[in-house]
Amino acid sequence: MSANLPDSERLRIRETMALFPASGGSVLDAGCGDGRLLDRLPNEVVIGIDVDPEKLSACRRPVVRGSIHALPFSTGSFDTVVCAEVLEHLPDSLVFLAADELQRVARTTLVVTVPWEEDLMQATTRCNQCGRSFHLSGHLRSFTSKRLSAAFPQFVVEAVCTFGKRTEYESYVFARLMRMFGGRWPVPARGLVCQSCGSSNVGSEGNAFAALIAHFHWRWCSLLKRCGKDYWIGMRLVRKTESGGGRSRHA
Ligand SMILES: [Zn+2]
Question: What is the model's pTM?
Answer without folding.
Answer: 0.87
